[in-house]
Each structure stands twice: as structure tokens, then as C-alpha cells.
Design brief:
Elements (H helix, E strand, L loop, with lengths): L4 H15 L1 H8 L5 E3 L13 H19 L3 E3 L1 E4 L4 H11 L4 H7 L1 H25 L5 E7 L3 H16 L3 E11 L4 E2 L5 E17 L5 E7 L10 E4 L4 E7 L2 E6 H11 L5 E7 L8 E2 L7 H10 L5 E4 L12 E4 L5 H9 L32 H4 L5 E14 L7 E10 L5 H8 L3 E3 L1 H12 L4 E2 L1 E2 L9 E4 L2 E7 L3 H8 L16 E3 L2 E5 L3 E2 L1 H6 L1 H4 L8 H6 L5 E4 L6 H13 L6 E5 L2 E2 L16 H8 L1 H10 L7 E2 L2 H15 L1
Helix pairs in contact: 3-20, 4-6, 7-18, 12-13, 19-20, 20-21
Length: 646
């Protein structure tokens, strides 16, 4: 007898469907001990990835085992349907490059196209998972675009507000100039890059030939320079270099002056960095940007002076004097804030210098980075190449900029100890996953939750049009209808923005942002149970007994789940985690379109069947370890199944 996988698998799937086998087993086990499995939602932005297929097969194996043990298994599937992954696909399809193009096309039409794509892909993904033999509740899958799900997110924001964990702040945040929106920490991918770094002379004010020597790897930020940082505890020198006097860290003087600048020097004076505090210097672009600098100096007397920082100035590289642009980086922002230096950065959302920036107007911060070096010739000492880690946007794969913008944040930094304590109670497999997650929690920062985009859960904050400090946080669709006196038919942009709240003479309109898509995924531990609309399932099942995802979710979904539940309920939302690795090609490379090495589960199923795919991925899986996909090994598994069948 020939092992005809197509006929066998299709007959079995047909039998399961006609006899409602999954539903009957669920009913049979309904009086057994509860087992709350929480499905991590895949994005509905495209086809099912081979790694997602592996993930679902592993989940199905666990759920089948639990059902056979008599457990009453909660197996509701779910999908992530908002965010840039979908927007990006729709923009490409409609040939809309920038946000301005979306506005011209029409936000309402754009949102409808996003929803259409997400729902269509969801239906295809349901079919793919079912064809793999996965038993989960796909018919009732939670969808982040539904009103009930959005209600669950608004509940989180309202609870965070009530718990004193929601705030608006001006911060220097990572910015994706391609998608023209702020990025959260977990949306960054650090890559090793080689950039041009520059050593510059900033002339000390009222000194004819004395200079502060600074170093930076981002020439485009020099226009936004508002200070120079030195370490108060390090030793610095005034060094005679030709006819000039250079101020540098003693420990870097030799490598810099003799090595990089190729000059001799003589030490005139040695002192600690704190003696330089308040020293004024002349900015090389002062004449070009005089209007801006004069206004900034009226705001702070410390603009274009030396300030102290023991945490961000070291002898690892450079000159010991660090260029400070509070609007162009989180560390710079911190030091600037401490010294009351404003975080100035007026770049446009797509990364260009605006029209009031003199000869720099119209230049792009990253794309035209080298052009700024030419403008610094009069004060340039040297240009060197440096290899360093730099953040890239996870979606655009372009280097990020840092822009000072107002965003809404969840306050979590003071919860780190409590979160680590709760995490110690969680069963992590493998142990390396626990170590990685614990390390992530130790370095947790307040993260922005807002995006300047379109396809997402609207931020439920209505602000007084006359008083920006006066705002209302709305906790549900029903509450909004009561406050506005309007029937809300559609919770998405642009329709939601028609809802206006009036209190006496005060008028409140919604802020235009949407929630970061990570907030969607972070709320699924209760949204999966339809909480807070209903509480019976929540009381019976919460927190989740088990979650299972890949190792990229250490900084992603695992993190988001814990943050959301701690901020809203002060307790964790999962008890046990299994973490698997990645599926890569035979050479250990990531699957990608550019390498033309992508493999989709449909291809394997069509040639070898679902059982072969499951046998290959489940049989060879070790916790946290990557799999290098190998067609030869798949063929062997297929032959083994044929022998077993016969």
C-alpha cells in the first residue's frame, strides 16, 4: 500500500470537520481541570512564515497532550491585525510612499484597505493552520481590530491613569523617518556599522587660540549642539599644539594628538573635569543659526557651555569631551534636562532640516550626513572610521534618528524589582530564557505607547482644546458614548475623531495618535477571555498556565504581557513559558526575500504533507535552539513516515 498523504490527510481533516471532533473533545473535557493556554498573536500582514508554522505545531502538540490527560483546555487562537506591518503592505500596494500621500489618498479609504488586507490574511492563515492539523479555536479567534478588543486596551490605559502610571513627556525618542513615527525600545534592531567620526575644535569664548576638542559619530547633530560634557572626576589637560591650546582628557591626549592629529604637544596644565564646568565656547554654526541659538540662550544660560556628566563620559574613545545635543539622543536628553538645557530638534518627521535652518535647509539628517562634515572644515581636526552598534527600525530596516517629541508613556522603571520578583515564580524553559528575560527587566525603561500613524487602536485620551494639561482618559466605547452623547459606530481613525466631549464650556477632542501595536499584544492575557466585558472566564482561568513563543519575544511579547498586567493589575499574567529558536536556511542564515531563500509551509505540505512537516519540526526541536531547515532531512522524515504507515 502506498502512503498517499494527500488523500489520508484530507480524509482525516474532512472527518474531523464533519463529526466536529475538536468540539466534542472540548465538551467531553469541560468538567476537567482548567488549562489556560494563551496564544501569542501572529501578524496578519502576509503569509504564514515557516517559523510560525513550527510554533503552531509545537503548541498543538502540548494542547493535544493536555486534552488526552483530561484537561479542560482553553485554546482560543488570536491575531495581531493593527500596526506598521499592515500599513506598510497597503502603502506598497497603493504606491503611497509618505504620510502626506496617505492624507491625499484619504485616511478613511486607507483604513478600509488596511482592514481588508488584515481580514483576508487572517482567513488564509486560519486555513493554513487548520491544514497543518492544528486544533485551536480559530472560528472565535480574538482580533485586535474588534470593538471588544479595543475596549480591553482602553481599559488598560484607564487603569494605568488611575494607578498613576500614565504620563505625557517630552523625550528624545528613536524615530523611524521612513514610517514617520516614534519607535519603542523593543522595535529597535542593533547592527554593527562603520560610520565616519569627526574630531572638532570648539573655540573657547574670549580666548584667541584655545579650543575644546570634541568627538562625535553623528555629524548631522552638530547643528543641534547645545553643550559639551566632561567627566568631573577625570583628569584633563591644556596642551600646546602648534600655536593653539587644546583641552582634552589626559588619558586620551596621546592617541588623539599624536595618533589621530599627527602632531606634537606640550602639557601646560593638568586639572580635574569639574574645573571646566560653565566654560563658554563659540559654536561653529553660530552665524548661520544665530536666530535659533539666541532664542535658546534666553531659555537657558547653560547653552553652549561645558556641563558635567560622570555616567556618559569615559576614556573608552574620543577626546574625553562629548558633544551634547539634548534633542538628539536619550543620554543627551537626560544630561540636558538635568542642566535645564532645552531638547532642541526641529527635524521634519521624514528626517529633513526645515526651511528656517539656513544653508542646512532641505538636507536629510542621515542621507546627507557626510555633507555636514564639509561645513566643519574650519574646525575639523580629523575624520576617522569607527565600528559601533547602531539602532535600526525593525520594520523599515533603516537607521533611526533621535527626535525630541512629546509622547505618552507607561511608567514602569520603578516596578523593575517587583517584576523581577514575580518573574522568579515563573517556570522558564530553557533556563537561558529566564536569564535573558531577567536581564531585559533589569534594564527596563519607561516606553512610549503612542504612534503618529493611522491603522491602530486610537489613544483614548480626549484633551481640553483650551488647556492641554486638562484631559480625560476614556475606558470603553460605552463610556465614550455616555461622555459624548453620541452613538459611536466605528472606533478607528478617522471616524473616532468626530466624537467630541463637552463639559460645561469645555470642549475635549481626541489626541490624534494611535497606540503602539505592542499595546494590542500586551493586553491579550485578558482580552482573550473577553475581560473586562465579562468576568466569569477571567475569574476561572487568569493568569495563563502556559505560553510558547520564539526567542525574539524576550524583548517583545513576553515583556509586553508582564508590563501590561503589572501596570493595570499589579500581578503577572502567565505561569510557565517555553521558548523555541528560529528556523533558518541550511547555512544558518535568516530567511529573507533578498537572499531568495524563503520557504513557506504550503510548499512542504504540498510535496510531503502536514505530518512530515510536524514530524520534522517537533521531532528535532530543542528548547531555545535554532533549526537549520534542510530538505534532505525532511525527505528522510517523509520516508520514515511511509515505513511507519506500511
Amino acid at each position: 500500500m502506498v502512503y498517499d498523504f494527500k488523500k489520508i490527510e484530507e480524509d482525516i481533516l474532512d472527518f474531523w470537520a464533519k463529526k466536529a471532533i475538536h468540539q466534542k473533545i472540548t465538551k467531553r473535557n469541560s468538567k476537567g481541570k482548567s488549562f489556560y493556554f494563551l496564544d501569542g498573536p501572529p501578524y496578519t500582514s502576509g503569509k504564514v512564515h515557516i517559523g510560525t508554522a513550527w510554533n503552531k505545531c509545537l503548541k498543538d502538540m502540548v494542547l493535544r497532550y493536555k486534552r488526552m490527560r483530561g484537561f479542560d483546555v482553553w485554546d482560543r487562537a488570536g491575531y495581531d491585525m493593527h500596526g506598521l506591518p499592515v500599513e506598510h503592505k497597503v502603502q506598497a500596494h497603493l504606491k503611497l510612499k509618505y504620510k502626506e500621500d496617505i492624507e491625499k489618498f484619504g485616511v478613511a479609504k486607507f483604513i478600509q484597505e488596511c482592514e481588508k488586507l488584515a481580514v483576508t490574511n487572517l482567513q488564509h492563515m486560519n486555513k493554513t493552520f487548520s491544514r497543518l492539523g492544528v486544533w485551536m479555536d480559530f472560528e472565535n479567534a480574538y482580533q485586535s481590530i474588534s470593538d471588544s478588543f479595543i475596549d480591553g486596551e482602553w481599559w488598560l490605559i484607564k487603569k494605568a491613569h488611575e494607578n498613576g502610571r500614565l504620563y505625557e513627556g517630552l523625550r528624545s525618542v528613536p524615530w523611524d523617518y521612513v514610517h514617520q513615527s516614534a519607535l519603542a525600545k523593543h522595535e529597535l534592531e542593533y547592527k554593527t556599522v562603520v560610520d565616519k567620526s569627526i574630531f572638532l575644535k570648539f573655540k573657547v569664548k574670549n580666548k584667541s587660540n584655545e579650543f575644546l576638542i570634541i568627538w562625535t559619530t553623528t555629524p548631522w547633530t552638530i547643528a543641534y549642539n547645545l553643550g559639551v560634557m566632561v567627566n568631573p572626576e577625570l583628569k584633563y589637560i591644556r596642551a600646546q599644539v602648534g600655536k593653539e591650546v587644546w583641552i582634552v582628557a589626559e588619558g586620551l591626549a596621546g592617541p588623539l594628538i599624536q595618533g589621530v592629529a599627527n602632531q606634537k604637544y606640550k602639557i601646560l596644565e593638568t586639572f580635574t573635569g569639574d574645573k571646566l564646568e560653565g566654560l563658554e565656547y563659540e559654536h561653529p554654526f553660530y552665524s548661520e543659526l544665530k536666530h535659533h541659538y539666541d532664542l535658546l540662550k534666553k531659555q537657558s544660560k547653560k547653552v553652549h557651555t561645558v556641563v558635567l556628566s560622570s555616567e556618559y563620559v569615559s576614556l573608552d574613545a574620543g577626546s574625553g569631551l562629548v558633544h551634547l545635543a539634548p534633542g538628539c539622543g536619550p543620554e543627551d536628553y537626560e544630561v540636558g534636562y538635568r542642566n535645564k538645557i532645552p531638547p532642541w530638534n526641529n527635524l521634519t518627521e521624514n528626517g529633513y532640516y526645515p526651511h528656517d535652518m539656513g544653508k542646512f535647509s532641505g538636507r536629510h539628517a542621515k542621507l546627507d550626513n557626510d555633507s555636514f562634515i564639509d561645513d566643519l572644515n574650519d574646525c575639523l581636526i580629523a575624520v576617522t572610521e569607527v565600528e559601533h552598534e547602531y539602532p535600526f527600525g525593525q520594520r523599515s530596516q533603516q537607521p533611526v534618528l533621535f527626535r525630541a517629541t512629546k509622547q505618552w508613556f507607561l511608567k514602569v522603571e520603578d516596578l523593575k524589582k517587583e517584576m523581577i520578583k514575580e518573574n522568579n515564580k515563573v517556570l522558564w524553559v530553557p533556563r537561558t530564557a529566564y536569564n535573558a528575560f531577567n536581564s531585559w527587566l533589569e534594564n527596563l525603561r519607561d516606553n512610549s505607547i503612542t504612534k503618529q500613524r493611522y491603522w491602530g487602536t486610537p489613544v483614548p485620551i480626549w484633551r481640553n482644546v483650551d488647556d492641554p494639561e486638562d484631559y480625560i482618559v476614556v475606558g470603553s466605547k460605552k463610556e465614550l458614548e455616555e461622555l459624548s452623547g453620541q452613538k459611536i459606530k466605528q472606533l478607528h481613525k478617522p471616524w473616532i475623531d468626530d466624537a467630541v466631549i463637552k463639559k460645561g464650556k469645555k470642549t475635549y477632542k481626541r489626541i490624534p495618535d494611535v497606540l503602539d501595536v505592542w499595546v494590542d499584544a500586551g493586553t491579550v492575557s485578558w482580552n482573550c477571555l473577553d475581560y473586562p466585558a465579562r468576568s466569569d472566564l477571567f475569574k476561572k482561568l487568569f493568569p495563563a498556565d502556559f505560553i510558547l513563543e520564539g526567542k525574539d519575544q524576550i524583548r517583545g511579547w513576553f515583556n509586553l504581557l508582564l508590563v501590561a498586567s503589572m501596570v493595570s493589575m499589579k500581578k503577572p499574567c502567565f505561569k510557565a513559558v517555553y521558548m523555541h529558536g528560529f528556523v533558518q536556511d541550511t547555512e544558518g542564515r535568516k530567511f529573507s526575500k533578498s537572499l531568495e531563500n524563503a520557504v513557506y509551509p504550503e510548499e512542504i505540505v504540498e510535496k510531503f504533507g502536514s505530518d512530515t512537516l510536524r514530524f520534522y519540526f517537533i521531532g528535532g526541536a530543542n528548547p531555545g535552539v535554532d533549526i537549520n531547515y534542510n530538505l534532505k532531512d525532511v525527505t528522510i522524515k517523509y520516508r520514515n513516515l511511509g515505513i511507519l504507515w506500511n
